[in-house]
Amino acid sequence: MGALPVFRWRLAPDGYATRRQLRAQGLRPGGQQVAAQLERPRRRRGPLVAYLYRIDLAKPVRPMTPARWAALAKANRARRICPTCRTDAGYVIPPTLGMCAPCAFPEPSLS
């Protein structure tokens, strides 16, 4: 494999796009290799790098099937269940706490 073409930030030729840009167009890389990269220089650290894919080789995004919707709903529901009290918190449990707010910060007893 040869070296990737490197372009300066905002100076990539037409026909290339990042993953996010492909997604905004309803496309996905579709198994293709990275075709080029963008580099944005920074003063005290290494450059920021963005990988580019060819638009002509991109494939359309796969549609969501009922089974995929159900799996996504199940995964999101699992993120709302507190592992300590096993109740649905009504929001996604923050990974920094690892439990719902009432379990993480119990009310002090008044006696």
Q: Would you give an account of this structure?
A:
The protein is α+β, with helices and mostly antiparallel strands. The chain contains 3 helices and 6 strands, in the order E-E-H-E-E-E-E-H-H. The protein has a 4-stranded mixed sheet. It is elongated, with a radius of gyration of 22 Å. The chain starts with 5 loop residues before the first strand and ends in a 7-residue tail after the last helix. The relative contact order is 0.14. The mean pLDDT is 93.
Total helical segments = 3
By DSSP, the count of extended strands is 6
As a whole number of angstroms, the C-alpha radius of gyration is: 22 Å
Helix and strand pattern: EEHEEEEHH
Bulk shape? elongated
Strand order of the largest sheet: 1-4-5-2
What portion of residues belong to β-strands?
15-25%
Which segments are poorly predicted (pLDDT under 50) over 5 or more consecutive residues?
A: none
Topology at a glance:
Layout: E1 6-8, E2 16-17, H1 19-24, E3 27-28, E4 36-40, E5 48-54, E6 59-60, H2 66-80, H3 101-104
Features:
alpha+beta; elongated; single chain
Question: Can you give me a brief rundown of this structure?
Answer:
Helix content is 23%, strand content 19%.
